[in-house]
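In the present case, backbone shapes were mapped to integers, as reproduced here:
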Amino acid sequence: MLFERVESEGLAHYSYIVGDRNEAVVIDHRRDCEVYPKMASKEGMRIRHVLETHRNEDYVAGSVELSYRTGAEIWHADGQLDYRYGQAVEDGMVWKVGRYEIEAISTPGHTPGSMSYLLRDVGGDPWMVFTGDALFAGDLGRVDLLGMDRAEEMARHLYDSIFNRLLPLGDEVIACPAHGAGSVCAASIADRKWTTFGIERKQNPKIQVAGEEEFVARMAVELERPPYFREMERLNLEGAPLLCTVPDPVPLSPKEFAKAAEKDEVLDTRMELAFGAAHVPGAINIWLAGVPSFAGWFLPHDRKVLLVDETGDPDLAVRLLRRLGYDNLLGYLAGGMVAWHMGGKESRSVATANVHDLCARLDREERELAWILDVRSADEQEKSGKITGAHHIHITQLPQRIDEVPRDRPVYIFCGSGLRSMVAASILQRNGWEKTTVILGGLAGWSSATCPVVR
């Protein structure tokens, strides 16, 4: 038997391939899908079906791409929506995979037509369930995607799905969700790589409720919604263009890059120290590993994107951006910033300081003048403490709240390490802020007497 989970970094996305004898099925697949045919071929199997648990909001599903490569049939959930590809799944449908069976179970709540897929063992007993975004380790799928006016209704659907359809399958059944810790599809997914319904019954706080009303009160809350979700929803109904039809970004000379940058977006994926030292004017900085988490918040889909990277080979950045539907990647700076400077082009910089320097400045003379911007999440502040006198604007909210940041005072930007702080600094700088300093290091070395950390 073939069973593998494929993890997509940054998005905290999990997909699965299940196979037996010469047949295989893939569930909740990503767009760059060459990994699945390779796995199947190695075991002498052919992918017959691709199954979606729901219409995804946070990444481009690979259904059309994988079907094109393998000839597999596409089965999508949320059949009430106007899909342009595949066939709609119905509750109770069964697919044979060698000696095994996979059965569709209707589990609405996260979306109206969400489906989970029950894999039965050779004897027909429940073995594992691919729960999509209905149930995660330590959390459940968000129910606010249709708007808060329908959140209570969707929470009641989810209650029925969890307590009447999934958990009764047995505590020993393995749960295989579509996301792990760090996903935006739930508030607080646990960092538990594998789980069972029994573990979740005992340890998942969203399941520790006295009844439906308490469950609805806990679940019917509004969470942050990245702006790129709308584009993902569109692509996952229409079917994303085949990657073989999407042009790859081309190498651009400094002169060509500078000309294109006058009208197009520049994304610099280097680390914070390199970007702070020198970068193309107007560039936004998102370090490479942070691209899946933050590009969808700050990069528009309706403009062309230019890339600056550390190595001169943007292949990984391109792959990560394609998963988020960015097919508008025009080109990259050939030779990187070395070539840019050798071409005589102007660059900008962002001041940096370590946490000890800032504490000393605050205690010595700058407390009344300095404006500390904390871009950490509320959860991080609760766990690690708040800096007295700091102004909290979560990094994802900065574009909407940018006018709260003063232009006439030195702004010291603070996060857990300096990575997100440099993202914030690049956003401020391209909008005209000049007096910004990124603080490197986080709370570990914080020792200011005038601005203590309050826990």
